[in-house]
Structures are given as structure tokens and as C-alpha cells.
Design a protein that fits this description.
about 210 residues, globular, Beta Polymerase, domain 2, about 35% helix, alpha+beta
Length: about 210
């Protein structure tokens, strides 16, 4: 599936959603940088019942620790489940992966460190053709934990295109969890030519 294909599936839920994963990076940059094996779609955990109702004819499986567990109709994901694999009933191939984010309609909360928060108004962006997608600095924050080769590629391709405030936010967010993360040096170098006073002025508080 392509990012534009998600809208017809989720429109009936009337809940906010956004393209996530590697596709979110490509939507931000306006070009496909590498092959994608699936389509990740982010939603708020509190909206999961509404979204799953819109997919009531689908097969939904909780994905955790390398195992898939069928989620019965009308049930909500367990608190320790972060993603759901979804496909139409009778289909052989998975269609989308629903990623469950914490927070509410006003504030997004980073599930790995609740100190990291953002206004929902800045978390989800719109592409020129109206596709909602996760802000690239937030997607890179998710990718920063034990980055795979494709995550390193996404970071290298996206970093030069991040605005100064986004680079600083990403730097500060990663620093909370891993002050020695190897991405931090590259984020500092990217911002080296900017005024420290300017960056301080536009920094969004982490909490």
C-alpha cells in the first residue's frame, strides 16, 4: 500500500491518524528514498476502539515480542502492546500496521520516556496532497533506539532537511534517554552555524 491508500480505510473512524515509519520520512521529503515492506499508520491508543470498529470486518493481531495474538472483535489492545497487524478477513497479506501512541487529542507523549511531550498540533503534519504524517523529528526519535541499517539511512537522508528547531528538539529528546547516542554529534554539527540564542528562543519545552 501507498500512504494515500490509508485514508479510505480510516475515514469512517473520525479519529486522528497519520503515516508513520519510513513512509513518514519519505512523505516529509516528497520522494521515495528506499523500498518499504509495509505501511505503518499511527493512532492514539485512546482512539483504538473507534479505529478498530471502522475495521470490524478485518483480522487484527497484537504484535509483541515476535509473536502475533488474535485480537477478538470488541476487545482493546493490552497496555503492553504497541502495534497491531491488520488485514481484511480472508486475505493472505498484511495490509497495515497500526502503531499505538500515548497521549490525547491535545498532547502527544513519548511512550519510552513520558518526559518527552509535544502538542498534537505540531506532531502531525499534512503533505501537499493532504496526507497526514508524523513529524520527521518524532519519527527519527522512535528510530533512534537500536537503529537498523534502514534507520541509519533515514536519519542520514533526513537530517539535512530538518529545520533548526526540529534538530534541536530531536537532540534534546535523544539526550534524555541516551546521552552518548552517536546521532547527537551529527545533530550538533548540523546546528553549529546557528545562533545559540535563536535556538534557545524557538525551543519547545520537553515537558
Amino acid at each position: 500500500m501507498q500512504p494515500k491508500d490509508a485514508a479510505p480505510l480510516l475515514l469512517a473512524s473520525n479519529a486522528p491518524w497519520w503515516i508513520a515509519g519510513g513512509w513518514a520520512i519519505d512523505v516529509f521529503r516528497g520522494q521515495t528514498s528506499r523500498p518499504h515492506t509495509d505501511l505503518d499508520v499511527g493512532i492514539l491508543r485512546v482512539d483504538a476502539p473507534t479505529v478498530l470498529q471502522a475495521l470490524s470486518t478485518w483480522q487484527i493481531f497484537e504484535a509483541r515480542d515476535g509473536q502475533l495474538t488474535r485480537l477478538d472483535p470488541g476487545c482493546v489492545p493490552r497496555p503492553d502492546v504497541r502495534c497491531l497487524w491488520c488485514r481484511p478477513s480472508g486475505a493472505d497479506r498484511w495490509t497495515i500496521e497500526l502503531l499505538l501512541d500515548e497521549g490525547d487529542r491535545e498532547v502527544w507523549v513519548y511512550r519510552r520516556d513520558p518526559r518527552v511531550r509535544r502538542s498534537m498540533a505540531t506532531v502531525v503534519r499534512q503533505s501537499v496532497d493532504g496526507v497526514p504524517y508524523l513529524a520527521p523529528e518524532i519519527q527519527l526519535l522512535y528510530k533512534s533506539k537500536a537503529p537498523r541499517d534502514r534507520d541509519e539511512m533515514d536519519f542520514a537522508n533526513t537530517r539535512p532537511h530538518l529545520p533548526a528547531d526540529a534538530r534541536l528538539w530531536l537532540h534534546d529528546a535523544i539526550s534524555l534517554a541516551d546521552p552518548r547516542h552517536h546521532w547527537l554529534q551529527f545533530l550538533r554539527e548540523s546546528s553549529a552555524t546557528n545562533s545559540g540564542n535563536l535556538l534557545a528562543a524557538i525551543r519547545e519545552p520537553m515537558t
